[in-house]
Amino acid sequence: MTAQIIDGKQVAADMRAELKAEVAELKKKGIVPGLAVVLVGEDPASKSYVTAKERACEEMGIFSDDNRLDADTSQEDLMALVEKLNNDPKINGILVQLPLPKGLNEAEVLLAIDPAKDVDGFHPVNVGKMVVGEKAFLPCTPHGVLQLLMRSGVTIEGAETVIVGRSNIVGKPLANMLIQKNPTGNATVTVCHTRTKDLAYHTKRADIVVAAAGRPNTVTADMVKDGVVVIDVGVNRVEDATKKRGYRLVGDVDFEAVKEKASLITPVPGGVGPMTITMLLYNTVESARRAAGIEA
Ligand code: GUN
Q: Which among 97, 207, 252, 261 is annotated as catalytic?
């Protein structure tokens, strides 16, 4: 079997068109959604993510407030900025790009963000609400994965789903979303990680494999069954002298070999990546609506 490729760019473009229309409607009511992005330091990958997020806001008509701070910024100054943004009525969403440079206390910063503006869905209040199945901002990457599965017609209910990776940003929240007792959940979920004894034992049984380990070639063709659905969340830079920038992006999955066994698979780039930013825009619009007392 050769897999059908899930075109994340196309799904994201469809969703962004829907959102753009919603932003235009809100503007007629005098409401302009605003997103503040905070980037501390010079990490190249973080810089390119942040630039992409800001560009996407502009395309959508969302106000984007750019806050770039030196790597040696103090915890106090960062906390003061978060407080200022919490109190700014033009700002509906606050995103502090992770990871923060060493020496800064990430947990303390995330806890300081007003949960009503936590469009990343990282605040413990939003995490808790998500776990118990209450309305909450869903973290963008796992929410994007869910949208890709749904919009590709994948049956999630009852599916043996194996997530490789247990990060707070992807693995843990996705597992929680997929076990919710609702139409986009009801999956049977196994979470594998660096201490899993026999990763292939688990992935071979899976109807859906989500790779979010942050390591190239974590999932290879011998590790999956025929007809599997594969979602690759990995974004890894590998040296490539043939490229002008000296590297290319690869996922966590051996794409070329696995696509010969899978029924559906996401590429890297062009799979999950475009969806993450789309879900951030979605949460920001939702936050602006809630702030104005308008229900979706
Ligand atoms: N770093 C990697 N992914 C993300 C994300 O979705 N949000 C934030 N704030 N930082 C990240």
A: 97
